Amino acid sequence: MSTDYLKRILTSKVYDVAVETPLDFAPQVSARIHNNVYLKREDTQAVFSFKLRGAYNKMANLSPTELKRGVIAASAGNHAQGVAMSARRLGCRAVIVMPITTPQVKIDAVRGFGGEVVLAGESFSDAYEHAKELEKKEKLTFVHPFDDPDVIAGQGTIGMEILRQHPGPIDAIFVAIGGGGLIGGVSAYVKQLRPDIKVIGVQTFDSDAMARSVKAGRRVTLNDVGLFSDGTAVKQVGLETFKLAREFVDDYVHVDTDAICAAIKDVFQDTRSVLEPAGALALAGAKRYAAANKWKDKNLVVIACGANMNFDRLRFVAERADVGEAREALFALTLPEKRGSFLKLCEAVGNRSVTEFNYRISDADQAHVYVGLQISSEAEIEKLAANFRKKGFPTLDLTSNEMAKTHLRYMVGGRSALADHEMLFRFEFPERPGALMKFLGAMSPDWNISLFHYRNQGDDYGRILVGIQVPPADKKAFKDFLDGLGYPYWNESDNPAYRLFL
User: Would you place residue 455 in the very low, low, confident or very high pLDDT band (cuts 50, 70, 90)?
Assistant: First the structure.
């Protein structure tokens, strides 16, 4: 079997449509993790992923009769584009069954290549079952996304290119795993020619069928799979890919959504390209594995396997990247509901950059504040929490709390019976440490902050929304305070949205 794959890879027909992609050094992420990281840029293929290789190699080896009947495939999106583009090149019909969760950018791309799209099921496995039914019904030729020797060999050409492009020492190659076609092909080639190189599979905690299968010694079927990394959301790996993984893959590493978001940001900073979650999975794994094993000055190759990202998803990625990179810590702090408490809290924060601040008055005795702080390492989180508790603020660490990160941060607020004489203002101020302290320090202790929202958006100017309880007799003094701040401001007290919700 092993020799057969070497021959299949060396004689693969992928270069009729695919290109040899660059192996780029990533200087910023390399410096940060103290290892040499090289990105195998499969996002630069015509379909923005590696899947074109395997799809075309399979279809180019079909008989004229099989091609004439047309082909069918099941895919979360990237294999679909590879099949559709290959079909257009080979002049045959292509029907693609995709999960209903597939990003629109991938659906549009398949249609753009002339593929016929059928949406069915919520995961690849569901789409696969529907595709098998259509295969029999319409007598089409099935092009499997991963469990096929010709597909696996096509993906294996990536391993061939890596060894040719980097003839020097390579300590490890990190590969994202869905069904296993990519790691099957890459490991089959690399481990036979360079057995000293570790091949390490990367999966998400909620879609790790391969790691579980290898551990169990048999293919395991997951009941559900996480869909953030939709390109690797596979409930059961292939029979052939499972065999190859057992023989050639050295180790596995798991990562979460935040780590993937951080890796997407890392690649953007080094290349100005935006990978999809599955495309950044290998880098997230490389960072985690290197840290866990205390690696330093190693040569790590990471396969950046796809860039078919829905633009709308970028908002979520940007929100979570800092937590994934251990650059942001999130806390729920409790402080006495009395004048001066905000200022005392700011003094406890010190010169550290505040990334988020959410608060709404709700209790006469205690205030609960949602705070985000910039950090440089995970070790700082507990130190910060201990410092807040020491200063008299009961503290709950929310950095790993999925509900808090996904929902709660946007829901701090609501109407309050305690917010009498409240005025609502928007402010803009230069985004630099100390601006918030300047604001609070200039404010009279007789005026109570009843609402506060701030989130660092990465702009030059910060934007805050503040509710301040100002007695009617203090209106002139308050106006003088506003003008003396030197920050642009807008009175939102009559905003209908404020009246409706706050």
Answer: confident
